[in-house]
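re the bet — no i am not wrong, look at it urself. input seq straight from the record:
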Amino acid sequence: MIASTKNEKLQHYLATLKFSLYCITHPLDGFWDLTHEKRGSYAAANTILIITLIVRLMKLRFTSFIFLKVYWEELNLVLYMASILFPLMIFVLGNWGLTTLFDGKGRLGQVYMASCYCLTPYPLLQLPLMIFSNFVTKDEAEFYGVISTLSLVWCALLFIAAMGQIHEYSAGKNIFFMVVSLFAMLVIIFILMIFFSMISQGVAYFISLGREILFRL
C-alpha cells in the first residue's frame, strides 16, 4: 500500500514536471491548466528553479572563455545565485500584491509556481549552448548570442502569458500590470534597502554604546 502511494506520487511529480514542456510550447492553454486544472505542482516548480540555478552555475565552469570570461577571485557565488532568486521572489510578491488589489484571481503560491515554470526555456537552451560554445570559434559568437538572448526573451514572454492566465486579465490589462509589477519591484527593493540600512545603523549604535560602557568601566 505504501509502495503504491509512493509510486503514484512519483508518477504525479513526473507528470507535472513534464507538463512544463507543454506550458512553454502552448503557454495560454498550458498556464491555464497549470493552476485551474491543477496540472502543476510545487515539487516540479522547485525542481525547475533548482535546475535553472545549477545550469547558471555550470555556465561559469563549462562555457568557453571565448564567450564568458570568469574572474573567480572577484566572483561572489552567493550574489551570483541571488541574481536569479532575488528578482524572482520580488516579482512574485510584487505581482501578487498588486493584482490582489485589482481583482487578480491568482494566489501567491500559483504566481510562484507559474513563475518557476516560466524559467524552463533557460536550462533547456543554455545547457546545450554551453556545450556548443566549446566547439565554435569567435567568428560564430553571433549565433551563440542570438540563442542565449532567445532563452531570456522566451522566458519573458512566458511570464506575460502566465500572469494573464492566472489572474484572468485581458491582454491590455495584463501588460499594464506586468509593467506596474516592475515598478513595484523597485519600490520593494527601495523599502528593503531602507530597512536594512536602519538595522545596520541600529546595530552599529548599540555596538558603539557597548564599547563606550566597557571603556568607562
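see?? The two ends are 70 Å apart (CA to CA). told u. also Residues 51 and 79 are 17 Å apart (CA to CA). so pay up
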